[in-house]
Design goal:
Length: about 140
């Protein structure tokens, strides 16, 4: 009986050590690495700041549910674009992240404003779907 009790205690201790403290926390995911469909005037972008904190560029980010302020920069390669490279600027986007959702972000060209530095693109969620997310890293 003592052996059985000791074995149970040891197994419980090992299980506790192996437990990932983030595994039971819900999260949502933002994805920027997947090439969006150009037929919809969508192009890649990068996240440069999250809630006013600079971030290192990554293909995707996991967040606990909540509202986030994103600063984004476009990678638009479109011969119609008449905005000089030095006049291109970032855009802000507020996104409400929901648990177990994946959001694909893109820069959408505004065809009626191709010569306007402040209006030639907008950040958009071009695809959203349910996807299991097991932990959230703090932004």
């Amino acid at each position: 009986m003592i052996r059985l009790t000791c074995a149970f205690v040891m197994a419980s201790l090992l299980a506790a050590c192996a437990h990932d403290p983030h595994a039971d926390r819900p999260c949502g995911e933002l994805v920027v690495f997947q090439q969006p469909p150009k037929r919809a005037d969508l192009h890649k972008l990068v996240i440069t700041r999250i809630n006013d904190k600079a971030v290192i560029s990554q293909p995707s980010y996991r967040f606990k549910p909540g509202q986030y302020q994103l600063q984004l920069m476009e990678f638009i390669d479109d011969p119609r674009l008449a905005v000089a490279l030095k006049e291109r600027s970032y855009r802000e986007m507020t996104l409400e992240v929901v648990a177990d959702q994946r959001y694909h972000l893109a820069a959408q060209v505004q065809a009626d404003a191709l010569a306007e530095p402040e209006g030639y693109w907008l950040p958009v969620v071009w695809k959203q779907f349910g996807a299991a997310c097991q932990f959230a890293s703090e932004p």
